[in-house]
Amino acid sequence: MKNRIVHLILIYKTNSKLLINSFAKVTEADSLKRPNRKTNSMIFIALHILDARCFILTQIGKPTKNPFAKYVDWTKTIDEIKIYPKLKKVLREWKQVDRIFVEELSKINSRKLNSVQQFEFPGGKKIISMISFLAEHEAYHIGQISFIRKYLGYPATSYE
Question: Has residue 143 got a pLDDT over 60?
Answer without folding.
Answer: yes
